[in-house]
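This section describes the prediction task in plain terms. A model, or a person checking by hand, is given the sequence of a single protein chain and must write out its three-dimensional structure as a string of tokens. No templates, partner chains or ligands are provided. The sample shown here is typical of the held-out split.
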Amino acid sequence: MTLRLRHLRLRAETGLGRYGADIPLSDGLMVIRADNSRGKSTAVKSLLFALGLERMIATRTLNALTSSLRDRLIYDEDTRDETPVLASWVSLQIEGVGGGVATLTRWVKHEEIGTGLVRVLFGPSLTAPGDYQSVDYYVGRPGAATNPHGFHRWLAEFIGWDMPLMPSSDGQLTQLYMEQVFPLLFVEQRRGWGGIQAQMPYFAGVTDVRRRAIEFLLALDVGGSEIKRQRLRTEERELTDRWRATVRTFHDSLAGEGIAVLRVPETLTVAWPPEHPPVLTESQDDRWLPVDERLVALSRELRKLEASEIPRIEDDASEMEQRLTDALEESDRLRQDSAVMREEIVRDTDEARSIHARIEALREDLREHQDVITLSKLGSSELDRMHDDCPVCHQPLPSTLLGDISLSQATLSAEDTVAYIKQQIELFDVMRRDTGGSLEGKQSRYAALQRRAADVRAVIRALRTTLTAPDGSPSVEYIARRIRLADTVERLTRANERFYGLVSALDRYAAEARRVRAALADIPHDRLSASDQEKLAALQASFIEQLHAYDFGSFSDERLTISQEDYRPRREEFDLQADISASDSIRVVWAYLMGLLEVSGQIPTNHPGLLVFDEPRQQSTKELSFKALLRRAARGGDGRQVIFATSEELTSLQEMLGDDKHTLYAIEGYLLKAVHD
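The expected answer:
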């Protein structure tokens, strides 16, 4: 993983001509020095802008840059006269993994080119001008981190990063963005020194994004394991939702058909298919008959009818009269059965509503008692203000719950009441499920009765029509019966086909669920691997060693650690920065971010070997501490790049740098000066 900044070029077209600056950037310790308000912040912010990372410090793109590139530029140091900026752009030459070099150009102000466009030349066009291939990318809008023409997707590949998918607040997976990793690599003066990762942007909804960014930068195994676990859990939730939706859609398709499916669970199960296979049934009188068996019998009857001649009225009159009598009797019976079933459905519906209301009341009681227990444990007298009777056992509450007075009739303690209410909720939940299942069955039975009643009424009409027709006419009832039978066979066949489609879909979901749960079981239970422990131990050693060097003075370090939960510095169980002086808080940021860089020199991580500090000497930090920081930054040599931008007095700065290997770029006057290229 590599990112080096090689050369920064700023250009602005003004009413007085072109102004600009060129800053060569070296490996090792690189110090950019300028007086206050002379362009140092312009240079630092331009680095962020060129890399498309301005959302770390501003919600609007142009707000991340100083006015000298977007509005008005001071051209006279003595009079501080200004000239309007007509057009401006930033170019940055960078080096990535494998030594690849590219030059980025992004326009701050242009009549035709928007700020969201980044032009990439695949070569060192600032230090070695030539005819290089050019590709345009977009940044700062949806897709910039994932789509082929998104700049941050290209930049991640250029650095050697594979940006991971992370769990988000909505339960889905979303990408970790580069802007959420760079607060560990780039500290801007105005917002960055408020604490570790003070510049963290919170878009995209990544949960616990600070910890996720550290896991990624250190390449912790636990991060990959957690991402894998979350991805598998998301897959499992999706399978559960698909299972539930498939079953519910199938149930809905049976509405009014008088058909029900048995032994198909509503929620995902890996114990599929069950020991007793699921079956599709149709209600017939007071029985549920398998649709497969019904289809065999009805198809046989239909073939028999289709194979025989249509009878004439005079040949079948007496039999038809008897069938009419039977049909009238069946119609009366069906009407009575439907009325009874309708009353049962109304009764069960009322009972289901009552059970639901009871469960809601119990849940409210549970919440009230749990809150009271919590308050009482904290020393509250809230219990004294509760109602006089227990909502469950309806006996006096306050004295017994407080345990102060012994009543003649013992009542439940608060904890026992909570346990009892939970038992009641469980009991009523079982009753609700039983009632719901019974209600669905009765509704299907009622639908079957209604369908059968309609068929019988059709038979009666056909028989009456047939019996009143002239002799010699074909039997209308026979023809109608054959048509009805064919319709029934077709209807049941369609339902059966949908049922086999349901079983096939559930087979696939169950197989996928078994794969997902097996993969979850294979993820190591130990949160941190041996490699993770090694990296955190190295970070802790570097961090504490640096605090010593920086004259950290808030307290001794015997209880300072790097947390194995969120990987941040702690003193015992408390966040270290919550209880220290402002200057020591700055030292903590120095030590932590430098520690991340130093760990990458010892153990492979995702750190690109780049660190940028804008005005690191904050809160009147001692010169001694700053000198120690400079020495520490110079210690890694050319194997990394540490860029400090400072307004430290030049002579003092040179003394502090001393003989340590470094590159000092001192800006005289204003950064942006007249240029003629």
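For orientation: DSSP finds 15 helices and 21 strands in the chain.
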